[in-house]
Amino acid sequence: MNDKYERIVRFSAEHADRARIIEHDTAIVDLASAATVFDVTRAAATYVVGAKEGVFAVIALASGHLKWRALGRALGLRQLHLASPDLVKERTGYDVGTVGPLFLGIPAYMDRRLLAHDMVYCGTEDAHHTLAINPQLIAEHNDIAGWFDGGEFAQSA
Fold it and tell me: Any idea what the Cα angle at residue 66 is, between residues 2 and 58, rounded to 5°?
């Protein structure tokens, strides 16, 4: 196992009342595979984005695609775009597709809709393990640069 995953395991043990690791045989690579393990309406995606202002995380419900240009305008970020796989790895230590909402090392913008749930499901860097976590705990353990309502920026998949 890798260092990120091990840190998340320790974190979930330290916060056992609000976080736990779910082990599963199915490798989660998309929402379809995730649906065999948990309720995907509660899936939280962590995107790493670049903008003229720097590199940021966007933590949002995963059930729809975000309108990046409109979201960037609302957040005051110019030329917002998904970061390259190399930049994601360099800045967060995660590989694209396995980015979780903890230990990012960059400021984050968070979707308020996540707070409507008592638990959300997130990446851990290991496709066979999912983090079930109270979204307030995500907010408490990140450098939150701002909040947004993802419903205003969602487009159907």
Answer: 40
